[in-house]
Amino acid sequence: MAQAKGFAAQSATSPLAPFNFERRALRADDVAIEIDYCGVCHSDIHTAENDWGGSVYPVVPGHEIIGHVTAVGSDVSRFKVGDIVGVGCLVDSCKHCSACDDGLEQYCLNGFVGTYNGQDKIDGTITYGGYSDSIVVHERFVLSIPEALDPASAAPILCAGITTYSPLKHFGVKAGDKVGVLGMGGLGHMGVKFAKAMGAEVTIFTRSESKVAEAKKQGADHVVISTDPEQMAAVAGTFNYLLDTIPVQHDLNPYLNCLKYDGVHILVGLIEPMDPPVHAANLVLKRRVIAGSLIGGLPETQEVLDFCAEHGITCDVEMLAMQDINQAYERMKKGDVKYRFVIDMASLKN
Ligand code: NDP
Ligand code: ZN
Ligand code: ZN
Q: Which of 37, 44, 182, 275 is the most exposed place for a label (fewest CB within 10 A)?
């Protein structure tokens, strides 16, 4: 066992505060990592504040982890001390079902283990995430960080990146397609970059007038202010895909109306009942599809890291001291971050 320092929420309503705990002793197939950076995902807020139910306290959030290897177990072959590595949203799965065999560990038939608020399959303890100075992870769930990537701005690729890359690829976005990205936050800004890299014509749907110029800088071809019915009507029936990163319940009907026939509305943000209900006619009359997608498996997460290195894709990050995490959460709830907070773990030593 090794002592670890981190920040945790002790209840759904308490701010995150310093928390000392133990990391497990290295198993034969484990990699021990000193954490250098950790991105701040909206799922961290949902879990810390128990928006989805089922949070087990204390919660140590954080699943966009970049660090360096400090020790490896006796059976580890892919990593050595000193390597720059990443850990995303998953730290274990059954490793033998058909989903795991297909490299889709996020859909493991026997349940994956989340990086935080998951339950370790061997000792039953609740997992603690990356808002901490160290972590111990089975080597299958550790990613190599390409040298071409700046480690701090690579952190968000491990969740925001893979979560947007995976469905765009899976649903077949190709050159010339019209793709709309709903919500210009951590996921949304990465979605724009990937859709552009795949050759699509990309539109950002945002509530925020202040993000219009920024969205263009990010590479978006067009911007629609989603709260303006005239702007929404002007793009009715035109999109092949909508990538929906909005983190709260919202009316899907006006967005479905923007899809062409056969268009696909891909949900990644909404993990709650749809409210208000979807009008079936919005699907039936145009053979439209509502789909969902969860992060990505380990092979595809490595693929997106390599894709970013190859295409020069980086996340726009705002560096954060661990002690400022509660203010960062308040800003994210207002949509005020450009476009991902990344915690510099050196600040934990202060
Ligand atoms: P951010 O907070 O960074 O961005 C969300 C964006 O959505 C905001 O910037 C804002 O954009 C828009 N938004 C926020 N509130 C509202 C609202 N009330 N109505 C309409 N639009 C709103 O969040 P993330 O990008 O980190 O995460 C987005 C969602 O995706 C979260 O729910 C998260 O849990 C989920 N998620 C899902 C994953 C999956 O595997 N499916 C993986 C990771 C995250 P704007 O100001 O432009 O309108
Ligand atoms: Zn996330
Ligand atoms: Zn499995």
A: 275
